[in-house]
Amino acid sequence: MNDKKQNPTQTRRTFLGRLSVGFIGLSLFSGLWVVLKSLIPNVLYEPPKRFKIGDPNHFQSGVSYLEEHKLYIFKQGNSFFAISGVCTHLGCTVKFSPFNQEKQITVRGKEFTETGEFLCPCHGSKFHGEGTNYAGPAPRPLKWHRLDLAQDDGQLIVDIATEVDRDFRLVV
After folding, report:
1. Confidence class of residue 15 from pLDDT cuts 50, 70 and 90?
2. Rg (CA), the chain
3. Which of 30, 76, 103, 160 has its CA 20 to 30 A from that of 50?
């Protein structure tokens, strides 16, 4: 029999020492990474809340949809109003569906001539032509946004940060 003691190349003490050094190094690297990452700004692009949409004369009578802004512009004679195309349920884009004939309806105690309705393709919400929800899971009416005329060139300006009442009309 061989009575020689085996001399392992790595003892428990050296293993635990190396493991401790590894954890300390990993902790320092993680902390350094967080510090370096915080020096780089996280900039999120947010579209402007107020923007020009064009000359009032370029809009046809009736409804125009501005896809990049998800916005419906209504022109009735020489008056304009803007309704958001974003469903108040989960943010899907609603579609305007015109009627063959105008309908007279009463919404919130006011008479209204309805030329169409908004339909949400995602979950079936329905909105009257002036944006009031009447069917489906949408909890609130569609938002109405403020319209103004630019002083410099006379273009229509939409302010999506400002919600207006359903009686609002910009007369040009």
Report:
1. confident
2. 31
3. 76
Q: Which domain holds residue 32?
A: 8-43
Are 86 and 60 in a shared domain?
A: yes
CA 146 to chain centre: 17
> Do 91 and 151 sit in the same domain of this protein?
yes
Residue 100 lies in a domain: yes
Q: Are 160 and 49 in contact (CB under 8 A)?
A: yes
3-state secondary structure of 68: helix
- Strands 133-135, 156-163: pairing is unpaired
Tell whether 2 is covered by a domain.
no
d(CA 40, CA 34): 10
pLDDT interval class at 140 (50, 70, 90)? very high
CA 120, CA 138: separation in Å to the nearest integer? Answer: 9
CA distance 151 to 162: 19
In a domain, 144, yes or no: yes
Condensed to tens digits (0 to 9), the pLDDT of residues 68-80 reads: 999 999 998 899 9
Span 144-155, pLDDT tens digits: 999 999 999 989
Enter the pTM of the model.
0.71
